[in-house]
Amino acid sequence: MEAAEFRRRGKEMVDYIADYLENIEKRQVYPDVEPGYLRSLIPEEAPEEPESYEDVVKDIERVIMPGVTHWHSPYFYAYFPAASSFPAMLADMLCGAIGCIGFSWSASPACTELETVMLDWLGKMLKLPDDFLAGTAGRGGGVIQGSASDATLMALLAARSRALRLILADHPDRSETDIISKLVAYTSDQAHSSVERAGMIAGVRMKNIATDSKFAVRGDALESALQEDRSAGLIPFYFCATLGTTASCAFDRITELGPICRAENIWMHIDAAYAGSAFICPEFRPLLNGIEFADSFNFNPHKWLLVNFDCSAMWVRNRSDIIRAFKMEPLYLKHDQQESGLVTDYRHWQIPLGRRFRSLKMWFVFRMYGLNGLQAYIRKHVGLAKEFECLVRDDRRFEICADVVMGLVCFRLKGSNELNETLLKRLNSKRKIHLVPCQLKGKFVLRFAICARTTESRHIHEAWCHISQLASELLQELPH
Ligand SMILES: *Cc1c(COP(=O)(O)O)cnc(C)c1O
Questions:
Q1: Which of 267, 298, 427, 432 has a CA 20 to 30 Å removed from the CA of 126?
Q2: Contact call for residues 133 and 124 (beta carbons, < 8 A)
Q3: Over the Cα atoms of the chain, what is R_g?
Q4: What is the pLDDT of residue 339?
Q5: What are the DSSP calls for 361-425, one per residue?
Q6: Which ligand 1 atom is nearest residue 244's CA?
Q7: Rounded to whole angstroms, how far apart are CA atoms 156 and 237?
Q8: Whose CA is closest to atom 1 on ligand 1?
């Protein structure tokens, strides 16, 4: 394809995308296909001769769309939102065009510098302590990771390396393998599965701390686990707190937990993958109090801040902790500039070498929405969740299962788990709306997450009518 055709096709594609998103609610939110549906629709082998662009485009509606779950439909209420906005999509086009691989400052200075500054902008929107900002000479700073899972793992690996270094400094005779076999990390029993997985990848024990009636980890629960493990000769070194758990959007008590971690030399990482976006609003910012005790903090603008996937923002208090853990410098990657607030080699901050110019989409979104626009967006979603909560509370057959703090409502029919499993199965098989469940203290619970950018009050009401009607049908079938 030459530039002239690209101009034409690009404009057509933008029209297709705008049509898709403008009319998305007319599509069935969840597809009807069976596993393997796609293989039968396309050839067994890649074509030997080039095909025409028309032929490729025709297959979007024939092959792809029938198997798409429409995450941006206002009838999609599953998981957590996947952020999406037009400015971010346009920036991603430009990112594709520049196509640099920004692993070091000199590999593309704009790619590195814009990222550092955008993470400072975002850190200031969240009112992060200054320690986490890069500025021009800071010790901390931010980085874009591909996902919250990457951030949790990076923090764990950096903590492991810091713990090893500190212990070896005091006990040079101890072996590394002996120390690693004694290390123990902690998280909440409500933490995302990626935290347990990070423990497996890092080869360290990961223990779950039991949560209270609000699904939050309290200081005393961590304290007693630490005591027990220390007296068994283990070495606590990492705690991953969650602000906004995946199941119910619960908040660990970091004002209690932080001082304990600080006193015990335990790296506190905060995973706020979903809820972090809301901390740009002053009314939600108190939930982040205690951040001053954290060593690292992460949330996903690609969930709730209108920046398309992938964009997971991570800050560290001491960049040297993370760099020291991973620094490798073969000659072909060396350059003359010294690492500082100005010159960052982000390859030392992440697992892969290559990285895209992802800060462009933050820049576009932050400028085109402004802080006020972003706050209004968060508040609108929270308002819709509260509206849904009221509808549920007004129906005595149902119960709310966790405090509704942000854009997630956990609810169920009063009654057995089986009853609720059947309700969810029927809801999802009708394919009018899409939800996923969670388990809370042994109860099967439905999660209703406000997801699409274009969700309005009328969609919430429609969804509730549908749920309540299916519930009536289900309850009528039961023997009285
Ligand atoms: C969604 C979520 C994650 C996983 O996010 P990825 O960016 O997909 O890795 C981690 N933690 C919490 C609390 C989440 O809600």
A1: 267
A2: yes
A3: 24
A4: 55
A5: HHHHHHHHHHHHHHHHHHHHHHHHHHHHHHHHHT-TTEEE-S---SSEEEEEESS-HHHHHHHHH
A6: 13
A7: 9
A8: 273
- Omega prior to 59 cis, within 30 of 0: no
Pocket test residue of 145, 194, 252 for ligand 1, highest count of atoms within 8 A of CB: 194
Ligand 1 mean position to 297 CA, how many Å?
A: 13
Q: Name the least confident of 194-208, 261-275, 344-358, 413-427.
A: 344-358
C-alpha atoms less than 13 angstroms from C-alpha of 438 in its C-beta half-sphere? 24
Q: Which residues contact 46 (CB under 8 A, 6 or more apart)?
A: none
**How confident is the model at residue 478, as a pLDDT?**
83
d(CA 445, CA 440): 7
Task: Kindly give the interhelix angle for 359-393 and 86-98, rounded to the nearest 10 degrees.
Answer: 150
Question: What is the rounded CA–CA span in Å between residue 384 and residue 377?
Answer: 11
82 Cα to the center of ligand 1, angstroms: 11
Per-position b or e across 192-213, b if 16+ CB within 10 A of its CB: bebbbebbeebebbbbebebee
Q: State yes or no: pLDDT of 341 exceeds 80.
A: no
Task: Find all residues with CB under 8 Å of 168, minimum gap 6, and list them.
Answer: 174, 176, 179
For the segment 161-185, the average pLDDT, to the nearest whole number, is: 94
- Here the contacts of 378-384 (C-beta below 8 Å, separation 24 or greater) are 378/277, 378/278, 378/280, 378/281, 378/284, 378/304, 379/281, 381/81, 381/304, 381/406, 381/407, 381/450, 381/455, 382/278, 382/406, 382/407, 382/450, 384/450, 384/455, 384/456, 384/457, 384/460
Helix (H) or strand (E) holding 148: helix 148-170
The residue whose CB lies within 8 Å of the most ligand 1 atoms, and thus the one to mutate among 195, 300, 447, is 300
pLDDT on residue 213:
96
Where would I find the H helices in 23-147?
53-59, 86-98, 109-125
Distance CA 243, CA 289 (A): 11
Instruction: Evaluate whether 31 touches 66 at the Cβ level (below 8 Å).
Output: yes
Check if 274 has its Cβ closer than 6 Å to any atom of ligand 1. yes
Distance of alpha carbon 219 from alpha carbon 423, whole angstroms: 38
- Using the structure block, give the residue that is written with the tokens 């972003």: 374
Q: Does ligand 1 lie within 6 Å of residue 278's CB atom?
A: no
